[in-house]
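S.,

Sequence below, as promised.
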Amino acid sequence: MNSRTYAKLRRSYIEVRAREFSLTTTTVLADREPSGVFKRSTPRNQLAKGIIAVMKRLIVLIAIAALSTTAVYSQGPATDAPRQVKAGEVIQLGGAINLRVTKSAKSPFTGVKMQGAPLVVVLEFDGGKQGATLSYKLTPDAKSDLYLMSGAQKLAPLAVIEDFPAWGADNDKEIEVLSPKESVGSVTLSFGQKGTVSLLFDVSAEQAKTPQRFSLMLHTIKPNNEKYSLVVNL
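The prediction came back faster than expected:
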């Protein structure tokens, strides 16, 4: 075999091997190295890249869903509005406490000096035989958890009477006038069965003509630890 024939055979062999290699490999622009040299991408490499791309998209979607859930959850408490109830309606608190809010036709607050007309709101509690404990803030200013809305004006209570027969000798039914200098502040009531808390408000003649609502925020401690915000239309 002469050198020319050998060169032709060698060239043919190289061309056949090149065709076989091109069937199993693919060169794309995306596979170019920063130096400008192309690298080979096999079907296995392409499959691996596809899986990695899908996983990246899933991770992004999961992160977005987690952020959305957190945002919705964080806004829940802020968007809770006070529950609207009617005077005389029975309200369940903490699973075992019943509450009724009414407006009294007569005032038991004798001897309390006032500038306007008396308006008495009565909170009737029923803690059952097992008893209950709750708390609230009672002050003669805007910080009070119990107050009267007369039109657009907010009125703090002027005096209070607590009447819980289960207290026995400690149930003195004393009229306690709320003073800015000697604010009652935080009140914790522990009682069994039924009892009342009566609140006196000083309402002017003009305020008496407007619709009145009683607002209260209560924190039940026993039997369940929960917070309630209510608005009673009197």
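Residues 82-233 form a domain with the Immunoglobulin-like fold (CATH 2.60.40).

Coffee later?
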